[in-house]
């Protein structure tokens, strides 16, 4: 795995290509970018046929050990690794520890073990078991075992220090087994940077991890909800300063577009793409605008829309939004979309927008039809991937400020046009 | 071997031919060409020309109740070779409602389905799903489960909704009684269904674009069935359905009513056996002369992990498949079997809805492939042999052949060994 940076903008933002991915090294991934989020090797709701109606899918698929650990015995019998087991043919496999969408109950970590939760409950992993799993899964790249239980607001300094120490110890043990395991030759390992919300611990974790022979770094314990954005950015900036320039940094648990932009500025290269899935699960569609190509006609149109929609936010009294809903999405269950015959996003080339209308999606959602999840997942994934494309383009063109302005001021719920 | 409806047309000069065809198509937007008839049984293979495409019969029609087929995209359904699927008038009439669907250019436009659609009358769901329904000469009265308002589904209302849906085949509103009910109620329902057929015919605003099928009633009473057949076949409808069956009656009664109906139905019009979809039932009822079938079973059972296979079914969620690395059916050409193993589907069922979609795709492929093989064998004049092979594969031994199927097949000159 080799990171070729073509630009480093404004001190932190890195634009480049991660090359030499996969066993034969023929895959690459542009950064800043994201991995393809899966559960048990499947992008939620999608069969391979529907998934591949999307173009420009990331070349790397993320597996989470939590969704596959319970199948270890099956995989051992199968012998050919998870890629073949799941019918995934032409993709690089990255194996992470936890599912970023499912919160992990606290209080089950020991000096020697971490726990993951699958469909059948908790599975406790020692380094030996963790590495045995990696041997049967046979990913192209995996994150080392880590103690990331520092996200609760009352975590003590002592506990944070412990998590850094344990994670380093796990890494050393993992690497030891890794180098002795025939099946894992040529497989990349990412070290995990912990340290909770304590700056010195973050820096110590980064410095120590960077000393080990790892291919890149996972930044853990910084997920949405664990701390405020300003602190997260401050910690990430401090950490990335300690990490070697030529190795990629993957941030776990952060996916909101505004947070992604800020974290990219702080030096993050890679994200997990679980955000489109969360949006799908609440019946919403991503609709935020990241198009910064100058178009005078469009500018007029948008100004009109803003005027039209001023003060209508509370018009619909029964609008009972999930408080997790962000301003980057629209809630298609809302009655206003009942007879809206426009695509989810005008100009979007995804299968859903090419074929279907908001009114149909509204109908599928209110009748609890399974196709709603399929179509929303397709659109939300396409929209999210396109956002990363726009982000890279903006870095290449030096227009990141424009993009930031566009994305941050965007309020989907209010860009409803004239009836 | 063209059906009579087309005879006499072919010999005319092109211009007259054209104008004649126009007159004919003004009568009904449906043409049935009989491609082959089995010399032994009553089976036939036809091309059913409908407004959106030609349907090769015998055909199984998957059910997309609410304007969607259980997690499958219309592109997936089309690529499986589906030429016609169902929508349910009761559900769609409630949500999103006929006005909205009309605005979306009918159900085709709303769900973006390019091939044909058949809609039911809504009556069956009303009687089976809604507790407070009352049937009078006017229609079926029921309380809306959404707002509690009393609604009357009359023959006119049913056709009006189906006209808004724009289906290629509409079904008349019939007076549905359970097939296990006997006595005067069955006779009343049969006569009322005939009167309602006339009201439906009169109410159809789009006879040039939408076909209206009659539904033969009469319960399990042969005399009543015959009267119904006699009356309804006098009406100028483009096709007939055999109704009031597959509702828990004895299979012995079931097949006798089916074969009685096909004996009296005109050869040149399609016959649709409602609510039938188990593989054995399909093969036997094709032999009895039915052309079209529908059933929710293959898609419903898929969601519980039950995959249909030539030897019955396979419960993917059962532990025995956790380490079974074969596809569901090694001979199946569907996208699921080409890519995934039983073991992977078993694992995926614990994690994601896509597991259901995989089995749904397979089950629809199974039904459609079965009917294509049936048709092929009829065309090639080897349907009797097909039936024997099919039964051998489906049952471990001939002792396990269901008695009704043996009798039904014997009635059309097929002896199973
Ligand atoms: Zn889209
Ligand atoms: Zn299959």
From TrEMBL, chain A:
Domain (tRNA-guanine(15) transglycosylase-like) ranges: 14-409
Keywords, comma-separated and alphabetical: Cytoplasm, Membrane, Metal-binding, Mitochondrion, Mitochondrion outer membrane, tRNA processing, Zinc
Principal subcellular localization: cytoplasm
Protein role: Non-catalytic subunit of the queuine tRNA-ribosyltransferase (TGT) that catalyzes the base-exchange of a guanine (G) residue with queuine (Q) at position 34 (anticodon wobble position) in tRNAs with GU(N) anticodons (tRNA-Asp, -Asn, -His and -Tyr), resulting in the hypermodified nucleoside queuosine (7-(((4,5-cis-dihydroxy-2-cyclopenten-1-yl)amino)methyl)-7-deazaguanosine).
Any GO CC annotation of this UniProt entry: mitochondrial outer membrane
Keyword Cytoplasm: yes
Subunit-structure text: Heterodimer of a catalytic subunit QTRT1 and an accessory subunit QTRT2.
Cofactor: Zn(2+)
Name by which UniProt lists this protein: Queuine tRNA-ribosyltransferase accessory subunit 2
Record's cofactor remark: Binds 1 zinc ion per subunit.
Source taxon at top rank: Eukaryota
Residues that bind Zn(2+): 348, 350, 353, 379
InterPro entries (UniProt xref): QTRTD1, Queuine_tRNA-ribosyltrfase, TGT-like_sf, tRNA_ribo_trans-like
GO biological process annotation, one example: tRNA modification
Coiled coil: none
Topological relation to the membrane, as annotated: Peripheral membrane protein
Automatic annotation (TrEMBL), chain B:
Cofactors that this protein relies on: Zn(2+)
GO MF annotations, alphabetized: metal ion binding; tRNA-guanosine(34) queuine transglycosylase activity
Compartments reported by the entry: Cytoplasm; Mitochondrion outer membrane
GO CC annotation terms, alphabetical: cytosol; mitochondrial outer membrane
Catalytic activity: guanosine(34) in tRNA + queuine = queuosine(34) in tRNA + guanine
Binding site for substrate: 120-124, 174, 217, 244
Topology of the protein relative to the lipid bilayer: Peripheral membrane protein
Domain of life: Eukaryota
Segments of this protein annotated with the region RNA binding: 275-281, 299-303
EC number: 2.4.2.64
Annotated Pfam families: TGT
Tagged with keyword Kinase: no
Catalytic residues (positions): 120, 294
Quaternary structure annotation from Swiss-Prot or TrEMBL: Heterodimer of a catalytic subunit QTRT1 and an accessory subunit QTRT2.
Similarity field: Belongs to the queuine tRNA-ribosyltransferase family.
Protein name per Swiss-Prot or TrEMBL: Queuine tRNA-ribosyltransferase catalytic subunit 1
Originating species: Myripristis murdjan
């Amino acid at each position: 795995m080799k990171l070729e940076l073509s630009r480093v903008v404004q001190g932190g933002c890195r634009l480049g290509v991660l090359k030499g991915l996969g066993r034969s090294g023929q895959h690459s991934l542009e950064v800043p970018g994201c991995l393809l989020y899966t559960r048990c090797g499947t992008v939620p709701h999608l069969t391979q046929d529907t998934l591949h109606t999307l173009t420009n899918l990331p070349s790397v698929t993320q597996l989470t050990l939590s969704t596959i650990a319970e199948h270890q015995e099956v995989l051992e019998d199968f012998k050919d690794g998870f890629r073949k087991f799941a019918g995934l043919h032409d993709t690089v496999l990255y194996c992470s520890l936890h599912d970023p969408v499912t919160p992990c109950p606290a209080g089950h970590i020991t000096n020697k073990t971490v726990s993951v939760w699958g469909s059948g409950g908790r599975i406790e992993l020692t380094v030996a078991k963790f590495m045995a799993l990696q041997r049967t899964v046979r990913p192209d790249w995996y994150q080392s075992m880590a103690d990331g239980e520092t996200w609760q607001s009352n975590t003590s300094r002592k506990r944070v220090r412990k998590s850094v120490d344990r994670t380093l110890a796990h890494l050393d043990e993992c690497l030891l087994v890794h180098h002795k395991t025939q099946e894992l030759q040529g497989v990349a390992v990412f070290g995990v940077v912990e340290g909770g919300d304590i700056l010195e611990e973050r820096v110590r974790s980064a410095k120590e991890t960077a000393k080990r022979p790892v291919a890149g770094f996972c930044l853990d314990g910084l997920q949405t909800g664990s701390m405020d954005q300003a602190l997260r950015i401050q910690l990430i900036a401090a950490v990335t300063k300690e990490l070697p320039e030529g190795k990629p940094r993957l941030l776990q648990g952060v996916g909101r577009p505004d947070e992604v932009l800020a974290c990219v500025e702080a030096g993050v290269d890679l994200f997990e793409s679980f955000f489109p899935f969360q949006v799908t699960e609440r019946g919403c569609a991503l609709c935020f605008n990241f198009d910064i190509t100058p178009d005078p006609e469009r500018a007029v149109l948008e100004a009109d829309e803003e005027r039209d929609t001023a003060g209508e936010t509370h018009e619909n009294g029964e609008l009972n939004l999930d408080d997790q809903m962000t301003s980057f999405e629209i809630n298609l269950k809302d009655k206003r979309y009942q007879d809206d015959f426009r695509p989810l996003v005008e100009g979007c080339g995804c299968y859903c927008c090419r074929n279907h209308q908001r009114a149909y999606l509204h109908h599928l959602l209110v009748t609890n039809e399974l196709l709603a999840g399929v179509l929303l997942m397709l659109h939300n994934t396409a929209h999210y991937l396109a956002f990363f494309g726009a982000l890279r383009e903006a870095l290449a063109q030096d227009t990141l400020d424009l993009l930031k302005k566009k994305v941050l001021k965007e309020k989907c719920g209010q860009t409803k046009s004239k009836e | 071997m063209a059906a009579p409806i087309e005879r006499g047309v072919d010999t005319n000069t092109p211009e007259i031919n054209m104008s004649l065809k126009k007159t004919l198509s003004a009568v009904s937007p449906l043409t049935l060409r009989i491609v082959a008839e089995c010399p032994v049984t009553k089976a036939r293979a036809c091309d059913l020309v409908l407004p959106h495409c030609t349907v090769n019969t015998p055909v199984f029609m998957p059910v997309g109740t609410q304007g969607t087929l259980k997690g499958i995209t219309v592109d997936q359904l089309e690529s499986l070779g589906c030429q016609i699927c169902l929508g349910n008038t009761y559900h769609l009439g409630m949500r999103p409602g006929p006005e909205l669907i009309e605005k979306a250019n009918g159900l085709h436009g709303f769900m973006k389905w390019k091939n044909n659609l058949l809609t039911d009358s809504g009556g069956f769901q009303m009687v089976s799903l809604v507790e407070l329904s009352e049937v009078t000469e006017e229609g079926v009265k029921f309380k809306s489960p959404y707002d509690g308002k009393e609604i009357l589904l009359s023959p006119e209302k049913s056709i009006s909704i189906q006209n808004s849906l724009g289906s290629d085949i509409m079904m008349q509103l019939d007076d549905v009684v359970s097939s296990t009910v006997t006595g005067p109620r069955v006779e009343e329902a049969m006569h009322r269904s005939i009167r309602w057929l006339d009201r439906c015919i009169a109410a159809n605003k789009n006879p040039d674009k939408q076909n209206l099928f009659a539904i033969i009633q009469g319960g399990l009473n042969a005399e009543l069935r015959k009267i119904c057949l006699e009356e309804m076949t006098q009406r100028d409808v483009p096709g007939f359905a055999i109704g009031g069956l597959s509702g828990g009656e004895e299979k012995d009664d079931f097949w006798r009513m089916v074969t009685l109906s096909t004996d009296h139905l005109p050869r040149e019009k399609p016959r649709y056996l409602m609510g039938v979809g188990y593989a054995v039932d399909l093969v036997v009822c094709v032999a009895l002369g039915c052309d079209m079938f529908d059933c929710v079973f293959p898609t419903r059972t898929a969601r519980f992990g039950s995959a249909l296979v030539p030897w019955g079914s396979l419960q993917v969620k059962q532990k025995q498949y956790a380490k079974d690395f074969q596809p569901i059916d090694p001979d199946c050409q569907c996208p699921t079997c080409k890519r995934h193993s039983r073991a992977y589907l078993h694992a995926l069922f614990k994690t994601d809805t896509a597991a259901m979609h995989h089995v749904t795709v397979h089950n629809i492929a199974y039904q459609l492939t079965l009917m294509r093989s049936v048709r092929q064998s009829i065309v090639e004049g080897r349907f009797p042999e097909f039936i024997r092979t099919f039964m051998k594969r489906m049952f471990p031994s001939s002792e396990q052949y269901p008695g009704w199927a043996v009798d039904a097949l014997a009635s059309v000159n097929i002896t199973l060994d």
